Amino acid sequence: MSNSGNTIKRSTGERIFRLGNHTFLTFLMIISFYPMLYVLFASFSDPWEIMKHRGLLFWPKGYSLASYKEVFKNRSIWTGLLTTVINLIGGTSINILLTLLGAYGLSRKGFLFRNTIMLGITFTMFFSGGMIPTFLVVKNLGLYDNRWSMILPTALSAWNLIILRTAMLQVPDSLEESALLDGANDFVILFRIMAPLVGATIAVLVLYYGVDHWNQWYQSLLYIQTRSKYPLQMIMREILVTNSQEQAVTTTETGTEPIQTTIKYATIMVGTVPILCVYPFLQRYFIKGVMVGAVKG
Asked: Which of 48, 105, 111, 268 is deepest in the core (most CB within 10 A)?
């Protein structure tokens, strides 16, 4: 089965399959990554050059930073970014805390009616109240046009709760029993024993919740009326969709330029790059966390 050393001898069919598999996956990677490269190159391109360009783009056309200058001069971008960061930090913290508390309680074998409660939580994944009842609840609670309306309605995800509960169920019961004998209460067991042991899963959930808060615009469209409370994604929506006259033609240091298109690309980069930078720090936890419960034993 093997030749000298630890090298595995592969058949011709296996080598052909691996070559074809790698080629196909490389092709998928390229066609998936290219749109991002196109937006990056276009955002650094000269507005006049990008207007005349047709087809694929493999480098900036007439390098220019005019679009980024206009984007960063827009005060709404900065206020939207601040709102998004506040929602991201505060919302994700509340998400993780509630998910931890819920998953711990529902993972305890002595918890009364835990299966019935889990059935009710799972039910909400398939059937929800709908947009209008949810809007009425938010409004009657006094959250309309309030920043809390972008945090509290999504404070807990049923899917993420199930993921974390599954991870906690795999922790040996002997650890909890030993802690109880030493006089530890449930909060000590949760935050000093369970949370560190399921840290990989928590890291993945931080990523899930964080991306949701960073990309949040629909709730602000429904619940936020004051423009100064708009998150970054809502400001981006205005720039990318509404195409106001203010953004169509912009006067820059070099004169009046048709900078609308490149401003769109620059805005997309500003709104996308920060959250992409988080992935490398959580990548080592990602596979381990999402595979929880995939293998028994």
From this structure: 268
Name the 3-class secondary structure at 9.
Answer: coil
Alpha helices in 44-113 (DSSP H): 47-52, 66-73, 75-107
Q: Which position has the token pair 């595995």?
A: 8
256 strand-pairing partners: 251
Return d(Cα 247, Cα 73) in angstroms, integer. Answer: 12
Which sequence spans correspond to the domains of the chain?
Answer: 12-73+243-284, 75-227
Strand 250-252 and strand 255-257: pairing?
Answer: antiparallel
Q: What is the pLDDT of residues 162-199, one digit of tens each?
A: 989 988 988 888 888 888 888 888 888 889 888 888 88
Only one residue has tokens 């005349």, namely 52
Type of residue at 225: Q
Could you tell me if residue 234 is left (phi over 0), alpha (psi between -120 and 50 degrees) or otherwise beta? alpha
Non-local CB neighbours of 231 within 8 Å, separated by 6+ positions: 80, 83, 84, 87, 150, 216, 217, 220
Rounded to whole angstroms, the Cα distance separating 176 from 180 reads 6
Which whole-number Å values give the CA distances from 14 to 4, 7, 22, 25, 183, in the listed order?
19, 14, 12, 16, 58
Residues 233, 146: Cα–Cα separation, whole Å: 17
Q: Quick one: which H or E segment has residue 203?
A: helix 199-214
The confidence score (pLDDT) of residue 68 equals 84
